[in-house]
Amino acid sequence: MLTAKQTHRLERLRNRGTLYELVAVHAESRQTILVGYGGNRSHGRQALRRICEERIDSIRQFAGCQDVRMGKGASATCGEWTISWSGRTQRECIIEGERDFILDLI
């Protein structure tokens, strides 16, 4: 059963393009946090780069490193954190439970 908040958030997505979840995963603990959502037309390396550039200060502060490096394919690293697409849509995230958002953790 969906909560009123989930229903409201899903209503806001109606008739909009699908967005995909971009996450940062810690190498050892496997802790996963939400970095942002990206659109399906630009899904891939360019969208990942754009979102990382928009959130660069937050990523650096959270991960405790200064260098965010683009990896092969659609991924990036910052210290012990790997940033990549999770494969979940924003709609799935709302229904299944959203991860902690990077901007809320710093």
* Record field, number of beta strands: 5
Major beta sheet, strand line-up = 2-1-5-4-3
| Gap between N and C termini | 32 Å
Rounded mean pLDDT is 91
Uncertain runs are none
Total count of domains: 1
Number of helices: 5
Question: Strand percentage, roughly?
Answer: 25-35%
Radius of gyration: 14 Å
Following the backbone from N to C, one meets helices and strands in this order, namely HEEHHEEEHH
Helix content: 25-40%
| Shape summary | globular
**Which quaternary structure do these chains form?**
single chain
- Give the class from helix and strand content and strand pairing: alpha+beta
What brief labels describe this structure?
globular, 5 helices, 37% helix, alpha+beta, 106 residues
Structure explained in plain terms:
This protein has 106 residues and is of the alpha+beta class. The chain has one domain. The protein contains five helices and five strands, in the order H-E-E-H-H-E-E-E-H-H. Strands 2-1-5-4-3 form a five-stranded antiparallel β-sheet. It is globular.
Which secondary structure elements does this structure contain, and how are they paired or packed?
Elements (H helix, E strand, L loop, with lengths): L3 H10 L5 E8 L5 E8 L5 H10 L1 H8 L5 E2 L4 E4 L2 E9 H7 L5 H4 L1
Antiparallel strand pairs: 1-2, 1-5, 3-4, 4-5
